[in-house]
């Protein structure tokens, strides 16, 4: 999402680092390029002006001009100011009280209903009992969609019908949730194609009726500055508590993520990074700033790994690795664990320096390869997976036919596996520090 902005900022920083000593003239020239990069990324012009003024004030002071590494100091300043602009720290849901109603508001098509399902899954992982409330009787498809999501998640869903009043739906849902022991009520309100008086009046009535602990605006990141303007409009009427930006994995230029907090004074609490129900991430300003500046996001990567890895299986794998008993079955299981963490593009984007390797085509990513590898291993017999040396030419033909791949792909997989085996043996020779718990050997 921030690819173009990251490239332009890194190019500017590279020029600044090329100067042994920085002057006000160097800094002003660099900031001019930063300004162009931010505006092209659809960052609000007021925010660009505010950010550059703060950076310049610090950059022309002794902090940079007297530094032995002035270029690096400028990058540090930009990182800190960008982080501060987006909120400095993550702000989660308040979820005040035993019932904790949460209102999701926004325009039609912003992804409110899907986000309600994602938020329900996230809260269930926090040991909450979410209750989904379809409060958009004007669009029967929205009611059906939320019911389907509830079934998929095993979450409670209020039985709304198209003939009910939205305010009555919300009142009854809160009462029902209390009786049934649900402690996080997610209200999916109606949207419109544009902001109008009728929509805002209905949302105000719902707010008065249920007294929500959180009002969250769901906004499409791909709409850029329109998302910022919409957030400002909803905030004026409802005094929202935060924003959830959807479609952050798409072609959005990222301006909304940088601008919303500065314009509305309201935090971005979550970002949608995919279509699956687990593709919702808490928004951390410091981590987002690191991604924008091409520094990666190791903390988010670690959290993804922790949520995807089965600790029991990780211990079993560690024992196998130490005994050189790593089989093709284990190879496949590890690939499955990696895929649970998200797309490879997203994962690699969190690793510092990987962006440059991808740009130089030193590291190519093809999600289909993982699918093919899994299919090839699944097409083997149990004996073949556990003893790859018995896979001769005829067996390779059978495996290729069964997995819908070619013999060349089967050969390549076996070759890669043998290389992994060799790596494991080398690490084991290094003694007990060779592996950490559940460490991937490839």
Q: Indicate how many domains the architecture comprises.
A: 3
CATH class of the largest domain: Alpha Beta
| Radius of gyration, whole Å | 26 Å
Strand order of the largest sheet: 3-2-4-1-5-6-7-8
List the defining traits of the structure above.
Four Helix Bundle (Hemerythrin (Met), subunit A), Rossmann fold, 442 residues, 3 domains, 57% helix, 434 Repressor (Amino-terminal Domain), flat, alpha/beta
Summarize the structure.
The protein has 442 residues and is α/β, with parallel strands linked by helices. Helices cover 57% and strands 9% of the residues. It has helices at residues 3-17, 24-40, 45-59, 62-65, 70-85, 112-124, 140-153, 166-180, 197-210, 225-238, 255-264, 285-292, 298-308, 311-322, 328-340, 344-349, 354-359, 367-378, 382-386, 393-403, 407-429, and strands spanning 101-105, 130-135, 156-157, 184-189, 214-220, 242-246, 268-272, 280-282.
């Amino acid at each position: 999402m921030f690819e173009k902005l990251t490239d332009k900022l890194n190019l500017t920083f590279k020029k600044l680092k090329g100067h042994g000593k920085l002057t006000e003239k160097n800094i002003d020239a660099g900031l001019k390029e930063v300004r162009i990069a931010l505006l092209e990324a659809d960052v609000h012009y007021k925010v660009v002006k505010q950010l550059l003024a703060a950076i310049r004030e610090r950059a022309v002071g002794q902090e940079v001009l007297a530094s032995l590494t002035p270029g690096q100091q400028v990058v540090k300043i930009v990182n800190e100011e960008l982080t501060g602009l987006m909120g400095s720290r993550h702000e989660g849901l308040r979820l005040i009280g035993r019932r904790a109603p949460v209102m999701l508001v926004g325009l039609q098509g912003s992804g409110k209903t899907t986000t309600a399902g994602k938020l329900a899954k996230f809260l269930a992982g926090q040991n909450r009992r979410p209750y989904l409330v379809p409060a958009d009787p004007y669009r029967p498809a929205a009611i059906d969609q939320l019911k389907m999501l509830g079934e998929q998640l095993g979450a409670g869903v209020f039985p709304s019908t198209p003939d009910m009043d939205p305010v009555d739906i919300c009142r009854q849902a809160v009462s029902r949730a209390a009786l049934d022991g649900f402690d996080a009520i997610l209200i999916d309100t109606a949207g419109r194609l544009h902001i109008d008086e009728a929509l805002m009046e209905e949302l105000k009535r719902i707010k008065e009726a249920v007294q929500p602990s959180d009002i969250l605006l769901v906004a499409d990141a791909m709409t850029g500055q329109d998302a910022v303007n919409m957030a400002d409009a909803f905030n004026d009427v409802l005094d929202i508590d935060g924003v959830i930006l959807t479609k952050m994995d798409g072609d959005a230029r990222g301006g909304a993520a940088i601008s919303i907090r500065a314009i509305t004074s309201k935090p971005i609490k979550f970002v949608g990074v995919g279509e699956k129900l687990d593709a919702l991430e808490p928004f951390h300003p410091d981590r987002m700033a690191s991604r924008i500046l091409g520094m990666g996001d190791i903390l988010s990567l670690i959290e993804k790994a922790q949520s995807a890895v089965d600790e029991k299986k990780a211990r079993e794998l560690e024992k196998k690795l130490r005994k050189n008993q790593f089989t093709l079955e284990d190879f496949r299981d590890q690939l499955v664990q990696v895929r649970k963490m998200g797309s490879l593009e997203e994962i690699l984007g969190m690793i510092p320096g990987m962006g440059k390797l991808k740009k130089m085509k030193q590291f190519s990513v093809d999600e289909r390869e993982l699918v093919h590898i899994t299919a090839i291993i699944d097409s083997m017999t149990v004996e073949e997976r556990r003893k790859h040396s018995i896979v001769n030419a005829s067996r390779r033909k059978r495996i290729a036919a069964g997995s819908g791949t070619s013999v060349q792909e089967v050969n390549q997989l076996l070759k890669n596996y043998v290389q992994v085996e060799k790596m494991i043996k080398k690490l084991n020779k290094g003694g007990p520090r060779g592996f950490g718990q559940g460490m991937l050997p490839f």
